Amino acid sequence: MIGSATPAEAAAAEVSAPRARGPWTGRAAMLATYAVAAIVLFGAAPAMLTDFRLRMLAQFLCVAMVAVGIGLAWGSGGMLTLGQGLFFGLGAYIMAMHLQLSSAGPSGRPAFMVTGSDLPWWWELFRSPATALLGIVAVPGLLALLLGLSVFRRRVKGAYFAILSQASAAAFALLLISQQNTIGGSNGLSSFRQFFGFALNDPVNRRMLYFIAAGVLIAMVAVVHQLRRSRYGELLTAVRDGEERARFLGYDTAMVKVVAYVVAAVFAAIGGALFVPIVGIISPQNVGVVPSIGFLVGVAVGGRATLFGPVLGSLAVSYAGSTLSEQIESGWVYVQGFLFILVVAFLPGGLGSIAAVVRSRRRRPAADELPRGVPEPDAPDPEPTPADVRSGGA
Amino acid sequence: MREDYLEIRDLRVEFDGFVAVDGVNLTVLQGDLRFLIGPNGAGKTTLVDAVTGLVPATGSARLDGVQLLGKSVHRIARSGVGRTFQTASVFEQLTVLQNLDIAAGAARNWRTLLRARSGIPPTVELAMETTGLTALRDRPAGELAHGQKQWLEIGMLLVQNATVLFLDEPVAGMSGEEREQTGELLRRIRRDHVVIVVEHDMQFLRSYADSVTVLASGKVLAEGTYAQVQADPRVQEVYLGPGHTAEPAPALGEVL
Amino acid sequence: MDAVLGQLYAGLSLGSVLLLIALGLTLTFGQMGVINMAHGEFLMAGAYTTYVVQQVVGGAGLSLLIALPLAFLVGGLLGVLLETTLISRLYSRPLDTLLVTWGVALVLQQLARDVFGAPAVEVRTPEWLKGNVDLFGAPFTKGRLFILGLALTAVLVLGVVLRYTALGRRIRAVVQSRGLAETSGIDTRATDRLTFFIGSGLAGIAGVALTLIASTQPYMGQTYIVDAFLVVVAGGVGRVRGAVLMAFGLGVLQATFAYSQSVSTAKVLLLICVIAFLQVRPQGLFSVKSRSLV
């Protein structure tokens, strides 16, 4: 009977027993982490930072929202989304169109538009606050659904998916640049005066924007947290590591991946939408290939497969970027480049995994310790079994 | 209760002009522990691939009268066809429990999926007991020993709620005692499943097969009980080459 | 008729540039599975090599001829350096390779900026490549004709090398079965390096060619790299023939779209076409080994 455990198994069970932490300790630690995050973001930061620095932090929070989504899609789901600028940009431009229309008054025209040219029909869609807010979520969400279904259903994955998503961001940026008359071309959209009725030059309202960004970011982390610990999260990881196997268990794996991809897209879009009133300008430079990869840097540095890694990494990289480039402009590019190279090549678990890597190095070679983006299928190499050869002649 | 059956008719698989499976007819009933054997390249795994939707095929493969060919892999799986792989394919980063829970959950709706698992589903609990993995529940599957991984895969097959079970070399690399346990398990599950085992191990085959189908060059060469197949001169020829018909069964195992 | 020919020529010209870049990628990405985002920067290095040679030699014609082999060498050596230091550690992690090489690209761009300055440098076109030739009644600039010739020559040479030489056989053997190649006495590491040398060298040559029609500046590689990857993806992995067809196909398609629409609309339509194409022919984009899945 198989049910009887061998001595080896029993020993293994003893070793693994302390691993299983009680649900309460885990939950308490998590709650404490959220509490600390809330205190820092809602209490300490606004109390200690100047208005200028707070605005900068708000901007970083928007970028971190994109990172949270990438953490889910890439870290848990193995989809390297190199084109998040597309969704970030869609959210941002829809918000920017709405803000320009509302700043210009009920019948007015956006500031950049040449007199004489007509307002395109799709601007009108986002004149009302309700449709604008709906559009910020629905347009990128539906596009991600469409893109995701069309590539995942055809089993396009790994590097091919990464390149296609990158190409989509590149094409989107070019499209924006070419639309000088309708969407501001390479100058983008700027000079927004009000945000849903609140004047944007009022410092109190700017603070409110910061609080909105902080609240939204924490909510997003909580959503990803729930997704990761749910059965769906386990399934997503299973699909990442063995998509074919999951298919043979009866799962429509394309749908599993699409959900994470759409969530990541919507998060990026919301980040973009909040970026606009906080920074005051959105242009094609914020959405192309380079910023799209830029979103990834923080995720990689912080640890793609962890819950808080993407947020912390993204904030740290944004901060380092703004501080270093204030002092030495070209220096930051080198630092960013080398940091990225070193972390991805030698610490794929992110900076947070240093301790774990050192510990496991001491115990044993840490070759397979870290989460891999794309696990290579093993060579089909059924081991010859001596028992087989001998059994017949015995 | 009516009996389940798998009926394969004139199944053909072609890769770029090479015919891997050439007009196979095969019927397996519930309660019949069927072994599929044949020399390397006979088309055994390709046949399983075709029925499970991995490679396109012509002909027909019906489960209780329902056509399987032409459906996508996950739909075939949901119709009640499960399989294991020559190299144990489990989700290495997930624990034993998570592996089994995922295998048991293809029919779950989104509301259930978006919640965390609370408690262990009874079928999963049972599968862990049956496969002796209860103590290793929270172990990542990647840390399991070779034989344990194979059992985990069999466990996943059990909780998958499949009607037809394909097992591709389930006892490869297992010790004698482990083989015995696996064989007993197969005997038990064949009562309410259609079970088809691809296997090279003649000793195992002799002990547990109810019936045997021999494939060679993509065609069915012989079918019957172990004794019938063993006595068939064509089978001996395929395995041993022409002129070696004198020596009977035990030698079969020796060459494999 | 002239308009149609004009578009066709524009398409062929764009296609030949894409082809030169994609050929190198066919080797490094297609055959070795390495996604080298710094490939565009090897191209940039080739273009700057032309500039430097021109500064030293003077004559535009002579320096172009010197720059071609030299840029091949420069691109190739950069490639080998990258392969041995970083990529060789990442063969089992293709997505991470992509990210790491992007970091390298970033550093190389900044390096070029610091050495040569951010504005484009002037590379003179040789007299004999100036002006147009009349082909079937429509003008074709000599520079673009030269690039077309260069691209076709590169395809031919690469095809011959891969098919008929011992080196080519070794490369194909390693691609098809690394383990088997190793046991039959092929030094797979040396073959990897050599493959990377040739692939990256081709990028250097593409850089020389680009100086004839585009400005030489630190970010020039980024302009073409995404399109070149699309060519390789749509053409089928590691297929020189696929790369040739796709490069010219996409080139002509883009020129046609650009004629009726704008250049950027053309890019968007092109991307949609590639995604639609992959719906019909995803072959080569995935491979399934049924005996072991995970």
UniProtKB/TrEMBL annotation, chain A:
CDD domains: TM_PBP1_LivM_like (cd06581). Its main location: membrane. One of its GO terms (cellular component) is plasma membrane. It is found in: Cell membrane. Keywords: Cell membrane, Membrane, Transmembrane, Transmembrane helix. It comes from the Bacteria. This is Urea transport system permease protein.
From TrEMBL, chain B:
Residues 6-242 form the ABC transporter domain. The keyword Nucleus does not apply. It comes from the Bacteria. Gene3D superfamilies: P-loop containing nucleotide triphosphate hydrolases (3.40.50.300). One of its GO terms (molecular function) is ATP binding. Keywords: ATP-binding, Nucleotide-binding, Transport. The keyword Calcium does not apply. Pfam families: ABC_tran (PF00005), BCA_ABC_TP_C (PF12399). One of its GO terms (cellular component) is plasma membrane. PANTHER family: CONSERVED COMPONENT OF ABC TRANSPORTER FOR NATURAL AMINO ACIDS-RELATED, HIGH-AFFINITY BRANCHED-CHAIN AMINO ACID TRANSPORT ATP-BINDING PROTEIN. This is Urea transport system ATP-binding protein. It comes from Trujillonella endophytica.
TrEMBL record, chain C:
It is a multi-pass membrane protein. The keyword Transport applies. Keywords: Amino-acid transport, Cell membrane, Membrane, Transmembrane, Transmembrane helix, Transport. The chain crosses the membrane at residues 6-27, 59-82, 94-112, 145-162, 194-213, 268-288. One of its GO terms (molecular function) is transmembrane transporter activity. It is found in: Cell membrane. GO terms for cellular component: plasma membrane. One of its GO terms (biological process) is amino acid transport. Belongs to the binding-protein-dependent transport system permease family. LivHM subfamily. This is Urea ABC transporter membrane protein.
